[in-house]
Specification:
CATH architecture of one domain in chain B: 3-Layer(aba) Sandwich
Shape of chain A: globular
Largest sheet of chain A: none
Oligomer: heterodimer
Number of helices of chain A: 10
Distance between the termini of chain A: 19 Å
Radius of gyration of chain A: 22 Å
Number of strands of chain B: 10
Number of strands of chain A: 0
Largest interface: A-B, 21 and 24 residues
Helix content of chain B: 25-40%
Number of helices of chain B: 7
CATH class of one domain in chain B: Alpha Beta
CATH topology of one domain in chain A: MetI-like fold
Structural class of chain B: alpha/beta
CATH superfamily of one domain in chain B: P-loop containing nucleotide triphosphate hydrolases
Helix content of chain A: over 70%
Shape of chain B: globular
Strand order of the largest sheet of chain B: 6-7-8-3-9-10
Largest sheet of chain B: 6 strands, mixed
CATH superfamily of one domain in chain A: MetI-like
Strand content of chain B: 25-35%
CATH architecture of one domain in chain A: Orthogonal Bundle
């Protein structure tokens, strides 16, 4: 109850602050919450937003799916086979530090300008986190549990399936959740800089026409999408990790 | 399921083990009779846990040999089950699934696994807690799950590594009595590593004292207290006090 009240209060406080910022002569043509909401409804009504959303979600699903399919097994392998982990983690650390946006011309040259090129950027943004978390999950497995399983005669395969994987699951899921929020950042960066479609394109068009209410509406919509996706993942996590309650 | 137990359950012959420069065990000799309850005590760092793990096949000795149930130990085998000081339960699995763990690894079919585990849980007095996760159980109850897991695979030998060390005194005494009752019903060979002199004397037929660095058998104390001890007030007798005192006199010189 208290949490719900606090959350509602924080939303109200945020909207008030926003309204104040829109009225104060802080910035030229900074849209009020009301204007943004109106623009959002108009965008939804025209169908432009839904079309862009579908295109963008394709890139997110493709890029994020690849990040999970590649990152989780790679991270597990790094954790189980020590030398692989020690070598690969250097590259992953570098990938995180990489100014990813600077790579975009390279991606355009090799993949072209399409949904796949945004997906590649999404992948580059999210995969290192997914991978490193899976790696960390394996490395954090309690040595005592491994010893216990060995004492009961576990084969290496059984040890992996019955102890290592379930031990690492919380960190794997946390990595996927963090990776997903990075995926949305990557999506907008990619679409702003390279692609003539998707939510990033809507933001760009609105900005170049000085339609700041539409621009903010699209950003807000993207946030809502990301928030919904993260909340869904958090629910899945809570279900899978019931034992932590 | 198991064959008739050999008269000697565990034979340790000339076992040595070093970790780097630390000589944990040096030329240890030990025989544990089938069905015997043996206590293993010694100052911290004397290698008692290392000896237990060597018998369990978890640690490979540098020299010497260990035989359990007539078979030379080359790795973890089906003869022994270990109960760990910190319980070592799978936090994501219910009590039931934790107790099934050893059976699962051995490929027992699901229905048999469930039934055997349920019986083991009832034996340790946890019936009704099958669906609880370890985090929902007290330390004493978690260790009961650990004991049930060890019993479920029906080993000849139970290796208990300071099983009561992280449990409060009251719970510990009740648990010790339950362990004695289970031991007399199941006729398992038990090797108990402990740092409590009272516990060793109360539970064991014989208490082996290890000396520290290098760990070797320093003394063996017979405990002629009559059984069953769990139903009488053994701890209050002069004989019990005398035995604990005798053990203390041996240990004091080793500190």
């Amino acid at each position: 109850m208290v949490v719900v009240a606090l959350r509602s209060a924080s939303v109200v406080a945020f909207l008030l602050l926003w309204e104040w910022a829109a009225r104060a002569p802080v910035s030229f043509n900074f849209p009020s919450p009301w204007a943004t909401l109106t623009a959002l409804l108009a965008l939804l009504g025209s169908g432009a937003l839904l079309g862009a959303t579908l295109t963008s979600l394709q890139s997110v699903l493709l890029g994020m799916g690849a990040a999970v399919v590649v990152g989780v097994p790679l991270g597990l392998l790094m954790g189980v086979v020590g030398p692989v982990g020690r070598v690969a983690r250097v590259y992953l650390d570098l990938m995180i530090a990489l100014p990813t946006a600077a790579l975009i011309p390279l991606v355009i040259l090799s993949v072209g300008i399409n949904v796949a090129s945004s997906a590649v950027i999404v992948f580059v943004f999210s995969a290192p986190f997914v991978t490193l978390n899976a790696y960390g999950g394996v490395r954090d497995v309690r040595a005592r549990l491994v010893e216990m399983a060995r004492a009961f005669g576990a084969s290496p395969g059984q040890l992996f399936l019955c102890v290592v994987l379930p031990s690492a699951l919380p960190m794997i899921l946390a990595g996927i959740r963090y990776g997903l929020s990075r995926a949305f950042v990557g999506l907008i960066v990619a679409e702003l800089l390279l692609s003539p479609f998707g939510l990033g394109r809507l933001i760009m068009t609105a900005r170049s026409m000085f339609e700041h209410d539409r621009m903010f509406a699209t950003v807000l919509w993207t946030l809502l999408l990301a928030g919904a996706a993260l909340a869904a993942l958090a629910r899945l996590e809570a279900r899978l990790l019931r034992w932590r309650a | 399921m198991t064959a008739a137990p050999a008269p000697v359950a565990i034979i340790v012959e000339g076992v040595s083990k070093a970790f780097g420069a630390v000589q944990a065990l040096l030329d240890v000799h030990l025989r544990v009779g089938a069905g015997e309850f043996l206590g293993l005590i010694g100052p911290s760092g004397c290698g008692k846990t290392t000896l237990l793990k060597t018998i369990a096949g978890l640690v490979r000795a540098d020299a010497g040999r260990v035989t359990v149930g007539g078979r030379a130990v080359a790795g973890p085998g089906r003869e022994c089950s270990v109960v760990f000081q910190d319980f070592a339960l799978l936090p994501w699995a219910t009590a039931q699934k934790n107790v099934e763990f050893g059976l699962l690894l051995r490929g027992a079919p699901g229905a048999e696994r469930a039934a055997t585990a349920r019986r083991a849980i009832a034996k340790v007095g946890l019936a009704g807690f099958e669906d609880a996760y370890p985090s929902q159980l007290s330390g004493g109850m978690q260790q009961r799950v650990g004991l049930a897991r060890a019993l479920a695979v029906n080993p000849q030998v139970l290796l208990l590594d300071e099983p009561f060390a992280s449990i409060d005194e009251q719970t510990r005494r009740l648990f010790q009595d339950d362990l004695l009752r289970l031991w007399s019903e199941e006729r398992k060979t038990v090797l108990l590593v402990t740092h409590s002199m009272e516990e060793a004397v109360y539970l064991a037929d014989r208490v082996v004292v290890l000396s520290p660095r290098p760990g070797r058998v320093h003394a063996v104390l017979d405990v002629p207290l009559s059984r069953p001890r769990e139903s009488s007030d053994v701890r209050a007798t002069a004989e019990f006090a005398g035995l604990v005192d005798g053990l203390w006199k041996i240990l004091r010189k080793l500190q």
